[in-house]
Specification:
- It contains eleven helices and ten strands.
- Strand 1 (about 120-125), helix 8 (about 130-140) and strand 2 (about 150-155) form a beta-alpha-beta unit.
- The strands form two sheets. The chain has a seven-stranded mixed β-sheet with strand order 6-2-1-7-8-10-9.
- With about 300 residues, it is an alpha/beta fold.
- It has helices at about 5-15, 15-30, 40-55, 60-70, 75-85, 95-105, 110-115, 130-140, 160-170, 200-205, 240-255, and strands spanning about 120-125, 150-155, 170, 185-190, 195-200, 210, 225-230, 255-260, 275-280, 280-285.
- The protein is about 40% helix and about 20% strand.
- It folds into two domains: about 5-85, Chemotaxis Receptor Methyltransferase Cher, domain 1 (Orthogonal Bundle), CATH 1.10.155; about 95-285, Rossmann fold, CATH 3.40.50.150.
- The protein binds S-adenosylmethionine.
- The site of S-adenosylmethionine has 23 residues, from loops.
- S-adenosylmethionine binds near residues 159 and 216.
């Protein structure tokens, strides 16, 4: 595609308001992500969709939309992968990792945990993995395997591209700038072709299972409850009804006394009485005593 025809195609997509609205509605229903009609979003959608149309052999929004609603799996994955915003970094909103360390240490004397020695975490929109690895570094130092602890972290995202990066666990050396000094030894520096990159060590990677998962799934399928759930900086893209239903489903996946971490610009206020604020953007799941029920 020449530069001129590329620009022409971009302008054509930008002007297709009906097509925009159809794709935005598909996106909202499929992922919860709300893309309002605005000049900025029209340009964003057009420039991103333009990258996948040739691969799919489609000419315009209308062909893409028809494929999406007919259940074309490749079109769905490509579309979702290009439209999600995956910004993240190690120890993002770093106060959360101090809180995590503090509340996790309390579990060392928890009667049930002393028996089971199992810690379960869900990192629910993990992007390229830095968040899940940050959690693993903190908890690995508190619950060492040699003391019999079984630390299991499930890290999920709807975007299958970011999960591939997450699984490799290889990052440019500069990405380690936000990693506190005490955890720098959790990485091994690359040599030869990998010079300038660092890989998270196996002892930290081994705690984590990365898997695709859509938070819009009607009922979450997890067998046992989590001690900690991180669901940060994803609900900012959702509308109120999707935020509320996501929080309620997440609450149901936390054990009583477990903690939910959300992004600092997000809130669960007014959604459920079962989540009690414990620190900025940190909530503990408590038993809700209903009227007439004994405490
Ligand atoms: C801005 S990143 C946040 C990453 C990380 N949680 C953090 O705070 O650094 C948002 C992530 O949410 C994912 N996402 C968006 N909609 C989703 C959905 N419906 N289900 C699961 N993940 C979703 C995106 O693919 C993206 O990787």
């Amino acid at each position: 595609m020449s530069r001129d025809s590329g620009l022409e195609n971009l302008k054509k997509l930008e002007r297709d308001v009906i097509g925009f609205q159809k794709l935005a509605e598909y996106l909202r229903l499929e992922t919860g992500i709300n893309l309002n009609l605005s000049d900025k979003n029209q340009t964003l959608l057009a420039s991103r969709v333009l990258k996948i149309l040739p691969n799919l052999g489609f000419a315009d929004y209308s062909a893409l939309h028809a494929a999406l609603i007919s259940g074309h799996r490749d079109a769905r994955d490509l579309f979702i992968n290009i439209i999600t915003t995956n910004t993240t970094h190690f120890f993002r909103e770093n106060q959360h990792f101090d809180v995590l360390g503090r509340v996790a240490r309390d579990l060392l004397s928890h009667p049930e945990k002393k028996k089971t020695r199992e810690i379960r975490v869900w990192c629910a929109a993990c992007s390229t993995g830095e968040e899940a690895y940050s959690i693993s570094m903190v908890l690995n130092s508190i619950f060492p395997a040699q003391d019999g602890w079984n630390l299991r972290i499930l890290a999920t995202d709807i975007d299958t591209d970011v999960l591939r990066t997450a699984i490799r666990g290889v990052y440019p050396q500069e990405a380690l700038d936000s990693v506190p000094e005490q955890y720098r030894s959790c990485f091994e520096a690359g040599k030869g072709d990998s010079l300038g990159y660092a890989r998270v060590r196996k002892s930290i990677r081994d705690h984590i299972t990365f898997a695709p998962f859509n938070l819009m799934t009607l009922s979450y399928p997890f067998q046992s409850k989590f001690d900690f759930i991180f669901c940060r900086n994803v609900m900012i893209y959702f509308d109120r009804p999707e935020i509320h239903s996501t929080i309620r489903k997440i609450e149901g996946c936390l054990r009583l006394g477990g903690f939910l971490f959300i992004g600092h610009s997000e809130t669960v206020v007014g959604v459920t009485p079962g989540l009690k604020s414990r620190a900025p953007a940190v909530y503990e799941r408590l038993k809700v005593i209903r009227k007439g029920e004994a405490a």
